[in-house]
Design goal:
Elements lengths: L2 H11 L3 H12 L6 E5 L5 H7 L4 E6 L1 H7 L17 E2 L12 E5 L13 E7 L8 H11 E11 L14 E2 L5 E2 L10 H4 L2 H9 L4 H12 L9 H9 L4 E10 L4 H10 L8 E9 L3
Parallel strand pairs: 1-2, 1-5, 2-4, 3-4, 5-6
Antiparallel strand pairs: 6-10, 7-8, 9-10
């Protein structure tokens, strides 16, 4: 899939990084002829069945995440397309796996028995940083895969990176739009400030009520898990998967003074430079 093709698909489906990540997964592990479980997203049917040539695609969306992040009234990311049939993942029935394309709603942690050993590939992008019970989620993903099946996960930004706070769009009393792309939180500020310290800083830029709301989203909202890069690596190492790739990605240099502050505040933490991680894991035969 060349750059021109990826651009055309982005325009057709109204997507951005999703196409790039899917193209990369296609290059290194492939979708053709495979039964795929997408965790934390729902790529369009034509894209996955015709362009990626998957044999069957089952998408899993977490509505709790979308309810939280869309509660401000503004769209962050790509919410699932509403349909009339909202089937809970935990209540999935075996015959649904005969359909070429499914969307279920729920958590991978609630994997039903009918989904065990059913998939050749699990594809998950921009999702692992939102999964709170990640060790359990990894356990369930392993159960969902057939022997020899693979898990591809590529996600960013993680909590230990410069913009790991994942701020949704919030509008202050003056009408200023603050968001992930226009963040009032300084780089690595969510790691360096205590909540009350960040609140004081934000009050110099906006009204108190909006400052409180941003502090909530940064430090307390369940829409991100706040794991450090080292945490992800260790959880995957303990998961029982065979690790083909565990690669930090998207490196951003940390100013020396900031790095010294971070290392002093989080002794033993090793990596604040990388914004994301790529995992390619395999379920042993």
């Amino acid at each position: 899939m060349d750059a021109e093709k990826m651009k055309a698909l982005q325009e057709e489906f109204g997507l951005s990084y999703h196409i790039n990540y899917a193209a990369f997964a296609q290059e290194i592990i492939g979708f053709k002829g495979k039964r795929v479980l997408e965790v934390g997203g729902s790529l369009p049917p034509r894209l996955v069945l015709e362009e990626l040539e998957a044999a069957q695609w089952t998408a899993l969306e977490e509505l709790d995440y979308w309810a939280e992040t869309l509660s401000t009234g503004y769209v962050l990311g790509t919410p699932p397309v509403e349909n009339n049939e909202k089937i809970l993942f935990a209540q999935a029935e075996p015959h649904l796996l005969n359909k070429p394309y499914n969307i279920f709603y729920g958590h991978i942690e609630d994997l039903p028995a009918v989904m065990e050993s059913q998939f050749d590939l699990i594809f998950s992008i921009a999702a692992f940083e939102h999964i709170g019970r990640l060790p359990l989620a990894l356990e369930k993903m392993k159960l969902a895969l057939a022997p020899g099946g693979k898990l591809f996960s590529m996600f960013a930004p993680i909590w230990s990176s410069y913009n790991g706070h994942h701020l949704p769009e919030v509008v202050d009393a003056a009408g200023e739009h603050w968001s992930f792309g226009n963040s009032p939180v300084p780089p690595w500020g969510h790691l360096l400030f205590r909540p009350i310290e960040l609140y004081d800083l934000l009050c110099s830029k906006m009204d108190q009520e909006t400052a409180k709301e941003i502090v909530y989203f940064v430090y307390n909202s369940p829409h991100i898990n706040r794991f450090f890069l080292d945490d992800y690596i260790e959880m995957v190492e303990r998961s029982g998967f065979f690790i083909q790739r565990a690669q930090p990605i998207f490196e951003i240099g940390v100013p020396e003074q900031v790095k010294a502050q971070l290392q002093a505040r989080y002794p033993g933490r090793k990596d604040f430079e990388h914004s994301g991680i790529l995992f390619v894991l395999e379920k042993k035969q």
